[in-house]
Design brief:
Distance between the termini: 53 Å
Number of strands: 16
CATH topology of the largest domain: FAD/NAD(P)-binding domain
Radius of gyration: 23 Å
Largest sheet: 5 strands, parallel
Structural class: alpha/beta
């Protein structure tokens, strides 16, 4: 390819094939079908190969983006995935669920005048190509150090920390409370966005490296953090922020009201989508409302559609412009027929004989921006109205589960219950105990949790070396 061609990339991203909306809303298969080889090469050719690639500055795990795309330009897909894996243990995951538009692609020079390079799509293609061709290389693990590390939680933060520590030759044991490893990647993100087989394969990679995974092991009940530290040289806490929040309005205790955590866990981990083959039904009825405007709300409402809901709606108190969900997820939801009730705030859930029958709301208007930069919603007096529904999912965020912190008297937490940890190292108030991900920051992204796990792993290795 000539330099002239490089300076004049196509203005738009290469489209990625998708299931038609009317078909995909009836199944749990992936929405996006991924690039073909020709698509990947075409998109890779849009990269300018900047001498100082700013895209890397937006990546929490510092993937060498320019270099891996360079391999793809040459048709060397094996070289591309190996380059990605120098920094990212979960490329097939990140290529699907990371908000690239707010991270690497946000900094892309091509994106200053045109659409940025589809970095996430290319990362996904490289990972999928490796899996399809069986070309994965064995991970080099250093000689055993004799050091033992306990990792609490098998979400993206814990898995990344385990990977980096195992590579250094440390003996790693992951303690997972549920009956499958993967954390939010398994119980929180629907199959149509992230197939469980991809997560399972990455976990097998860890096992091949010698990492042990103890399932059904609730730290704080089975063992305390103090007890773990009697048997391990260090501990990393990556339990996430899994305690559901509710709105505190009348009727939230009615049958048919779910937290998003419960709803998605039933559908994902307990396979309610395959009822009656798996005996975990979810009663949704034909009309369902999801309260909230984030990615979890989008996952919930789109899952409800696939479970047979005829009229699935989002109720959000701000406008579409303030909605924090990824634009891609909102776009997909609209295509699939989700109804959006914007500038609408629930004030009461109404029921009969213990079951939900309606939700009462009030209309809102936007005033000046708040501390988040979004315009504040203010109620319009006398605007109350009711929407008949059969079920409600509350997706207004989560908070820190106190179980693990409460099991360690010397572990300091902030006023919201999140563990206080150093941003660069993950070190906590307890010697040898580190923490990262949502249990420290509150709900954030998969890639930010992975970045925290990586920083902590490096700090733990230094600590063990000094010890």
């Amino acid at each position: 390819m000539t330099n002239v061609e490089k300076k004049k990339p196509s203005p738009n991203k290469t489209p990625i094939p998708e299931q038609p909306a009317d078909i995909r809303r009836t199944n749990f298969s992936e929405v996006s079908l991924g690039y073909t080889v020709e698509d990947a090469k075409k998109e890779a050719s849009r990269c300018l190969a900047c001498k100082k690639p700013k895209c890397v500055d937006g990546c929490p795990v510092s993937v060498p983006i320019r270099d891996f795309i360079g391999f793809m330009n040459q048709g060397d897909f094996s070289g591309a995935i190996n380059k990605i894996k120098e920094q990212n243990f979960l490329p097939a995951v990140c290529g699907r669920v990371c908000p690239q538009e707010d991270q690497c692609e946000k900094n892309c020079i091509v994106g200053k005048k045109n659409e940025p390079v589809g970095i996430g799509r290319l990362e996904r293609f490289a990972a999928d190509w490796e899996r399809a061709h069986g070309t994965a290389t064995k991970i080099n693990v250093k000689a055993p150090t004799g050091k033992k590390i306990a990792i609490v939680g098998s979400g993206p933060s814990g898995l990344t920390c385990a990977f980096d520590l195992a590579k250094e030759g440390h003996k790693v044991t992951i303690f997972e409370a549920l009956h499958e490893a993967g954390g939010v990647l398994i119980y929180g993100i629907p199959e149509f966005r992230l197939p469980k087989s991809i997560v399972a394969q990455e976990i097998e990679t860890l096992k091949d490296m010698g990492v042990e995974i103890a399932l059904n092991s609730v730290i704080g009940k089975l063992f305390t953090v103090d007890e773990l530290m009697q048997d391990f040289d260090a501990c990393y806490i990556g339990t996430g922020a899994g305690l559901p929040k509710f709105m505190g309005i009348e009727g939230e205790n009615l049958n048919g009201v779910y937290s998003a955590n419960e709803f998605l866990t039933r559908a994902n981990l307990m396979k309610a989508f395959a009822f009656p083959e798996f005996d975990t039904p979810i009663r949704t009825g034909k009309t369902l409302a999801v309260v909230g405007g984030g990615n979890v709300a989008m996952d919930s409402v789109r899952t409800a559609l696939r479970l047979g809901v005829d009229d699935a709606m989002i109720i959000y108190r701000r406008s579409l412009a303030e909605m924090p969900a990824r634009q891609e997820e909102v776009h997909h939801a609209k295509e699939e027929g989700v109804r959006f009730e914007m500038l609408t705030n629930p004030i009461r859930i109404i029921g009969k004989d213990g079951w939900v029958t309606a939700i009462e709301c009030e209309r809102m208007e936007l005033s000046d921006p708040d501390e988040s930069g979004r315009r504040k919603p203010a109620r319009i007096k006398g605007s109350e109205f009711q929407i008949p529904i059969d079920a409600v999912i509350i997706a207004v965020g989560t908070s820190a589960n106190p179980l693990v912190p409460q099991s360690a008297a010397d572990l300091k937490v902030n006023k919201w219950g999140y563990i206080i940890a150093d941003e660069q190292t993950g070190s906590t108030s307890m010697k040898g105990v580190y923490a990262g991900g949502d249990i420290v920051t509150g709900s954030a992204t998969v890639i930010l949790a992975m970045g925290a796990g990586r920083k902590a792993a490096s700090a733990i290795s230094r600590y063990l070396g000094a010890k």
